[in-house]
Amino acid sequence: MSDRFTPSSADSHLCDVFGASLAELHATAFRPDAPPALFRALELRSFLTVVEEQVARVRDRVHEAMRPDRDMGELSADDLRFDAQWLQAALDARDGYRTALGELLGTMPPPGPQSRPARVTAPTATVTLPPTLATPAPQRAGAATAGRL
After folding, report:
1. Gap between the Cα atoms of 35 and 18, Å rounded
2. pLDDT tens, 109-146?
3. Which of 8, 54, 129, 146 could pair covalently with 90 via S-S, beta carbons 3.0-4.6 A apart?
């Protein structure tokens, strides 16, 4: 199953920020006019779905091992410690991806038509110099003599 179709815990927030369904977001992510953050947001969402699947697998494995009708002789403290380490790593990764995605989405403008600022041209100033400053300097002013080079 593709992570594109696997739900994640951030889907509703992602859809709210971009103002479209996941299917629409995936369809527009590679278009030239797509918002630059859309591809990154979908990439983070993809990572998040993978790690949330890992969390679910470890959780289900622990629940299976701790099932009330299971033989207690089959319990292994080493297996449970190992699963706890895997679960901690997966939860840390999940928290990291959720934080990164939340920060990215927090910088996005609200959905809907965005008004573009009107172009303002800077005024140009023209200055007319007084006639005494506008006259050219004499030819020899500041010129080096030809014989001294």
Report:
1. 9
2. 665 555 444 454 555 555 565 565 555 555 665 555 55
3. 54
